[in-house]
Amino acid sequence: MEKDKILSLKGLSKHFGGIKVIEHVSLDVTAGERVGLIGPNGAGKSTLFNMIAGDLEPSGGTIHYYGDRINSMPNYKRTQKGIVRTFQKNNLMMGLTVRENILLVLQRINQKHTQWWKQATPGNYQLLFEHAGSLLHEWGLEEYSQTKVKDLSYGVQRQIEMIMAIAGNPKLLLLDEPTAGMSQVETDQIISLINKLPVEVTIMMIEHDVDVLFGNTDRVIVLHAGTLIADGSPEQVRENPEVKEIYMGKEVIANA
Amino acid sequence: MRNLPVKGPLLFLIMVFVPFFLSIFYVNLLTEIFILGVFALSLNILVGQTGMVSLGHAAFFGAGAYAAGLAAIHVSTNTFLSIAAGLLAAFLLAVIIGLFSTKANGFYFLMLTLACSQIVYSIIYQWRTVTGGSNGLTGIAPIDLGANIVLSNQVWVYYFILVVFTIVLFLINRFLHSPLGSVLIGIRENEERMKSIGYNTALYKNISFIIAGTLGGLSGSLYVIFNGFISPAEVYWTASGSVLIMVLIGGAGTLWGPVIGAAFIVILETLISSYMENWMMIIGAVFIIFVIFAPDGMVGIFNALKKFFVQPKKLEVDADEPIIKPIKQETKMDG
């Protein structure tokens, strides 16, 4: 029964000095679920992701992944085991080309990353280069294949973040505001590509665009000031009085 | 390298015929360039490729040189044994120093490598019974290649070191652009991100350090074969600074950069030191000029010149690509 749960958080907390950023969050995620995570700024959403991905160590509580306690497992090992994340702010190898960035992911997945005696050319690593090419084709970004990432717009970089995450064979995909700073066209494209991912891939997504989130997830979790205040289907969460209060209250202040 | 108008095999052929045309003075100069070229190539793996700036690389040169020299004195004058001893000593030293210095980043890494290399220096300086102390290691017999082929003639030493240099350059050319090489480049670009795409970056930094250190030891043992002598001065931190300057002036992260840098410094040193004693001052000034005006080194200057002159041709090549690229830039401002 433990094994059905891909992810299980129990009493998870994170304190920075006296500030309690995450306080006793418990939740289970079943394999294949599409979970949305919302909450006002500073609610602790990204901190929660950082703890799941291994970029931050929890102050208390436990994280179980497929039944194994992974509290102190380093982030690269979690990635190797299928916990793959994207970042709220673009975080890429800026001086390398788009293709080189993607190849860095693909060569690890295909166990080629320790080879040092052959140059990484399309001739020597045909499968890797074809795979990278087909991913770029799928996202309509072939033309940027040889462009350095730093020379691309923020929106395209954002898409490359997504491609790299998907190329990493995720079992649990953590998307931190995948559509932040993107045009409507790009947002629609990203969402449709997320929806095309295999059903067995579990996705947790932080998203400020509530319409995007409610329309594309089957479960929504609401964090507020570090605690979990609602957890249910999009409809249930939408009608939750506490959630309404938080979002309405914010609106009232914003309009004042 | 693809970006440079240097044709490897042609260059090798030219180098093969050089001793027929040049005096032994220039042959020796070239030999020294090849040795320091290997040294600079090894440091480039660390500095240029992995982005870890070390100021203690002379420790490996020294370890390799002293081990090779001691093997030649005490065990056998076989070249391959000497080189093997040099490689082994430098490898072990790199494992030990790498173990804790790669835990630090940036400035702290630089200071740790500097401190470690000064420890190695003072061990060599003070362990008189083994290393000869400040007098250096003397009495190293001419090296032989086995089967009674003694490398006593400087031209033969030149050819031997040319072959070793070529092999190293060939292997590094592959390594630099290999999957493992690209992991190191990824670490230079964004180490945190490399961790989150699943690379144990601490391990790869150690691998880089060990490869760089071991190759540094190779250059040290070549130096002993060439020179028949090694003194603590080659292990002092100024030697580490000098090789770092070679890498930076030549062009860090490129294949030919470190070699060009080594050639430049060796030639400059030879030219200036015959006129004045303070040649280091001139090299310092040259270095400052490079850092300010050509941060990508000489290879950077070559590439810029090439781009400048080749541009009209390049336009023709790109003619069948669409000139107007689809706009993907309309980002919305709200989060």
**What does the largest sheet of chain A look like?**
6 strands, mixed
SSE order of chain B in H/E notation? HHHHHHHHHHHHH
What separation lies between the terminal Cα atoms of chain A? 50 Å
- Mean residue pLDDT of chain A: 89
Chains forming the largest contact: A-B, 50 and 35 residues
Query: What fold name goes in the CATH topology slot of the domain at 2-89 and 170-255 in chain A?
Result: Rossmann fold
Structural class of chain B: mainly alpha
Oligomer designation: heterodimer
Shape of chain A: globular
GO cellular component, one term (chain B): plasma membrane
Protein name (chain B): Branched-chain amino acid ABC transporter permease
Keywords (chain B): Cell membrane, Membrane, Transmembrane, Transmembrane helix
Organism (chain B): Neobacillus rhizophilus
Question: Could you characterize what this model shows?
Answer:
The complex is a heterodimer of chains A (256) and B (335). Chain A has helices at residues 45-53, 75-80, 98-109, 126-138, 154-167, 184-195, 210-216, 234-239, 241-255, and strands spanning 5-16, 19-30, 34-38, 60-65, 68-69, 83-85, 172-176, 202-206, 219-224, 227-232. Chain A is α/β, with parallel strands linked by helices and 256 residues long. Chain A has a domain at 2-89 and 170-255: Rossmann fold, CATH 3.40.50. In chain A, the strands form two sheets. A six-stranded mixed beta sheet of chain A has the order 6-7-8-3-9-10, sandwiched between helices. In chain A, β9 and β10 (227-232) form a beta hairpin. With 335 residues, chain B is mostly helical. Chain B has a domain at 22-235. Chain B has helices at residues 8-21, 24-49, 58-74, 79-101, 106-126, 128-131, 154-176, 179-196, 201-227, 237-250, 257-273, 279-293, 297-317. In chain B, α2 (24-49) crosses α11 and α3 crosses α9 (201-227). Chain B is globular, with a radius of gyration of 22 Å. Chain A binds chain B through residues 53, 55, 74-77, 79-80, 84-85, 87, 91-96, 100, 103-105, 107-108, 112-121, 125, 143, 153-156, 164, 168, 177, 180-186, 208, and chain B through 171, 173-175, 177-183, 185-186, 189-190, 192-201, 322, 325-326, 328-333, 335.
